[in-house]
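Database export, one record per block. Field names are fixed; values are copied verbatim from the stored entry.
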Amino acid sequence: MITVGMNYKVLQGKEVQFEKVFANVLESLQTTEGRAKSALYKDIQDVQSYLIVSEWSSEDAFQAFIQSDQFN
């Protein structure tokens, strides 16, 4: 199992839109092979700062995903 984290700094005023888009992405990831779970975290001291954390069964599974059409 590997854990992957991605930090995002969202444009001011676009936070709600970013959260809605992530909810759609999360739904599409439900059937992605090798992905165990994903979560979105928001920094309460900097509301434009987000962290997405995903757990994958292996690095190979994650690499296959980021090279897929689904990711691009």
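Remark 1: The two ends are 23 Å apart (CA to CA).
Remark 2: Helices lie at 15-29, 59-66.
End of record.
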